[in-house]
Design a protein that fits this description.
By secondary structure, this protein is of the alpha/beta class. It has six helices and eleven strands. It has one domain: NAD(P)-binding Rossmann-like Domain (Rossmann fold, 3-Layer(aba) Sandwich). About 35% of the residues lie in helices and about 25% in strands. The chain has a five-stranded parallel sheet with strand order 5-4-3-6-11, sandwiched between helices.
């Protein structure tokens, strides 16, 4: 299959497996160059959980924890494999590359694919934490939890209601200049303000409620270290 870039509104809509692998390898090389010797730093993570691990800040955090500090990692994301006629999502290939490079380096890792908002995935993650810890020969005590989910939709596991997030201004419309990176053409892009319902739905998806549910679930299962640190990225 020949893969050609499909770009719309400055966003590439497809991916190349080798390109994704090279990007992951480049990040690993950067971390190794700039974080050499930090694995013995007091407080360095030994077992990290990255919720939203496949691209962007989540992937970078996982690479930093693993290849910078030598941590065992469990990653969670929702990606799609390729088919004979269509490539998979970038995150799918990023995860494959990360796990392959981690194995080469003797680092223990496990990647789960599915809905991170669901109770079922939380249960799977807890089991994976124990599995990874056993393989690494360390206590099943996560000392770093990264929450890096950017999602357009979330189903609340408690009542089954689906909420959809939006990227819109609050209060008044916004207009600004944008440039088509392929042609260099500059134009004006505008966005209407979000409604009260859209604001409420976006908070349900991205406002930290699920982050809290994750911490509660991990704590109840006894897989959080006493000195655990957690960080959520905002988008």
């Amino acid at each position: 299959m020949i893969i050609k870039p499909m770009i719309r509104n400055n966003i590439c809509l497809n991916s190349h497996p080798k390109g994704c692998a090279r990007m992951v390898q480049n990040q690993i090389a950067y971390v190794r160059q700039h974080m050499a010797g930090l694995s013995t730093t007091p407080g360095a993570p030994k077992l990290a959980l990255i919720i939203g691990c496949s691209t962007g800040y989540g992937l970078a955090s996982r690479i930093g924890a693993a290849f910078g500090y030598g941590a065992a990692t469990v990653g969670i994301s929702f990606e799609k494999a390729g088919s004979p006629t269509k490539p998979g999502t970038p995150g799918w290939y990023d995860n494959l590359a990360f796990d392959a490079e981690a194995a080469k380096a003797g680092l223990v890792s496990k990647t789960l694919d599915g809905d991170a908002f669901s109770n079922e995935m939380k249960d799977q993650a807890i089991a994976a934490i124990r599995e990874v810890a056993a393989k690494a020969g360390i206590p099943a005590q996560v000392d770093l939890v990264i929450y890096s989910l950017a999602s357009p939709v979330r189903t609340d596991p408690r009542d089954g209601v689906m909420y959809r997030s939006v990227i819109k201004p609050i209060g008044k419309a916004y207009s600004g200049k944008t440039m088509d990176m392929l042609t260099g053409k500059i134009s004006i892009a505008s966005a209407e303000p979000a409604t009260e319902e859209e604001i409420a739905h976006t908070v349900k998806v991205m406002g930290g409620e699920d982050w809290e549910l994750w911490i509660d679930a991990l704590s109840a299962a006894g897989v959080l270290a006493p000195q655990v640190r957690t960080l959520a990225y905002t988008y």
